[in-house]
Write a structure and sequence with these properties.
Blueprint: E1 2-8, E2 22-27, E3 30-34, H1 40-47, E4 56-58, H2 64-67, H3 69-79, E5 86-90, H4 92-107, E6 116-120, E7 124-128, E8 132-138, E9 147-153, H5 161-167, H6 173-179, E10 184-185, E11 191-192, E12 206-210, H7 220-223, E13 228-232, H8 240-245, H9 251-261, E14 266-269, H10 277-285, E15 291-293, E16 299-302
Parallel strand pairs: 3-4, 4-5, 5-6, 12-13, 13-14, 14-15
Antiparallel strand pairs: 1-2, 1-16, 2-3, 7-8, 8-9, 9-12, 10-11
Length: 306
């Protein structure tokens, strides 16, 4: 299961109700900050989630409404907060702008308050834990190196507790060994193999986050069968020409992508100040019913439907 906390859901400029782009995706002890618009550090404090374990930042592209908050965040780390390390992932052009912001504007010859790494990435797996991966994929927007991210749990075999009980497998480390694929020997000499107590392989949950985008036809395969999809909805269909001019999407376009890709739940964000959330929602629901429009500090769980 993945969780997402929206820190900012506005497009281009903040409004009284919406901050600039930023979301925290969590999986067990891991946390990833996706984008860091102006004011993100305050949103983190306001949300109550704090800075603990917030050591990895994934950037979708180099536009200021998605990266400018990094300056304030690093400034806060210099004076008030302490973390063990900070890794910032992004495409080459994105990191070039981030490097100027952090090292030339904020630090200006000072050393970072923690080990700070700017990690250039290209499409492919960029992070792997024991039970999930994070994969970057290309997105069309204004400028180069725009990326989206797929969070996907690895396939697993569920442990069949009732079967283990029937076989007399005691509670404790031996059950863990079976889950890890190791056979065990019981006190009476019987050998129990993992196949006897593990079910069929099951796919884990899949969660896709897209930043700003100008088209959706090239995103279908990346979003295929996702349990959750977060994508921008800067415009509504009545201003589709303007959306095309500025390389953004409409609510209808995001909903059409969800239909084509077989997405289970659609979450729209990056909402222009010119629209009411309920109107954006209504437009998307005419195409795809299971959709919500995110607000600042909304929290969602993304898990495999059974």
């Amino acid at each position: 299961m993945f969780e997402i906390l929206f820190l900012g859901t506005s497009a281009s400029a903040p409004s009284a109700q919406r901050g600039l782009s930023g979301q925290i995706v969590s999986h067990n002890e891991y946390r990833f900050l996706i984008d860091c618009g102006e004011g993100t550090q305050r949103q983190i404090l306001q949300s109550g989630i704090g800075f603990k374990r917030l050591t990895r930042i994934l950037l979708t592209h180099n536009h200021l409404d998605h990266i400018l908050g990094l300056g304030g965040l690093l400034s806060t780390f210099l004076k008030w907060e302490a973390i063990e390390e900070l890794e910032i992932f992004g495409g080459r052009s994105t990191l070039e702008r981030v490097r100027t912001l952090l090292f030339d504007v904020v630090l200006r010859g000072q050393n970072p308050p923690m080990p700070l790494k700017l990690i250039e990435i290209k499409p492919g797996v960029i992070f792997e834990a024991e039970d999930f991966t994070v994969t970057a994929f290309p997105v069309s927007h204004r400028g180069p190196d725009c990326l989206g991210y797929i969070f996907e749990e690895k396939a697993r075999r569920p442990f069949l507790s009732q079967k283990a009980d029937e076989l007399g497998v005691p509670f404790g480390p031996q059950r863990g060994d079976l889950v890890a694929g190791k056979e065990i020997t019981l006190p009476d000499g019987r050998v129990i193999t993992p196949d006897e107590v593990l079910g069929a392989w099951e796919k884990g949950s899949k969660f896709v986050v897209v930043g700003d985008a100008s088209r959706v036809d090239n995103l279908v395969e990346y979003c295929r069968d996702a349990d959750g999809l977060v994508i921008e909805s800067t415009y509504m269909d009545e201003e589709a020409d303007m959306a095309k001019q500025f390389s953004h999407l409409t609510a209808r376009m995001g909903a059409e992508l969800a239909i084509k890709a077989g997405v289970k739940k659609l979450i729209l964000t990056h909402i222009s100040r010119r629209y009411r959330g309920k109107d954006v929602l209504a437009e998307a629901q005419t195409v795809f019913p299971n959709v919500v429009v995110a607000r600042d500090f909304d929290h969602y769980q993304i898990k495999k439907e059974i």
